[in-house]
Design a protein that fits this description.
This protein is of the alpha+beta class. It has one domain: Lipocalin. The chain has 2 helices and 11 strands; from the N terminus they run αββββββαβββββ.
Length: about 200
């Protein structure tokens, strides 16, 4: 191999390394800002109305690639004991063995497995572990935007919604009312509003 050919090989190799490094570094890491984020839920009560609540304590990391969104990822840990439905007795019941059994299963975790695009929409796929059971779930979400706050920190925000079956996670407690419906519905609607700060 002549000198010119060797030189070309070296140059192309260096370019490939630089391009690969650029692809890696284009993905930024963010930490969830709990004070400006919300993880809420609602479930049917007595068939006719909804009980709403949220988890007051959770943390997580988001890796967001603005140039290639499908390479983004997210990991979240939720403190189940922080559940809040604005009713102390109900919250105590939800922490009990009838539902979350927080002494045995204190955390709920989500680990993403990929992001896909559906037209203009984006879907975050991952594995949710709750009550000792892990299931694949999909969360349609929207990027609300990126800004730099007055203190020079870059922030990013998302919102998304999905639905879960509590029975699929082993939480089957309920009672039947006289009309035949259940006191507590099976379907849980999850609502997420996430703001995160760049590391």
């Amino acid at each position: 191999m002549g000198f010119i050919m060797k030189f070309r090989v070296i140059v192309f190799s260096l370019l490939a390394v630089i391009m690969a490094a650029g692809a890696v570094f284009s993905a930024d890491k963010y930490s969830i800002d709990l004070s400006h984020s919300y993880a809420g839920f609602s479930v049917r009560h007595l068939v006719i109305t909804n009980v709403k609540g949220n988890f007051a304590s959770f943390s997580g990391e988001i890796t967001f690639d603005e140039n290639d969104t499908i390479k983004s990822s997210a990991n979240v840990i939720i403190d189940i004991a922080s559940i809040n439905t604005s009713n102390a007795d109900r919250d105590k019941h939800l922490r009990s063995t009838d539902f979350f059994d927080v002494e045995k299963y204190p955390e709920m975790t989500f680990v993403s497995t990929g992001v896909e695009k559906d037209g203009d929409d984006m879907i975050l796929n991952g594995r949710l572990t709750m009550h000792g059971i892990t299931k694949d779930i999909s969360i349609p979400f929207e990027l609300l935007g990126k800004v730099t706050d007055p203190w020079g920190k870059e922030r990013i925000a998302f919102e998304g919604e999905t639905k879960l079956s509590r029975k699929e996670y082993g939480m089957t407690w309920s009672k039947t009312i006289e009309t035949g419906g259940l006191i507590v519905g099976d379907e849980i609607k999850i609502e997420l509003q996430i703001e995160a700060v760049k590391k």
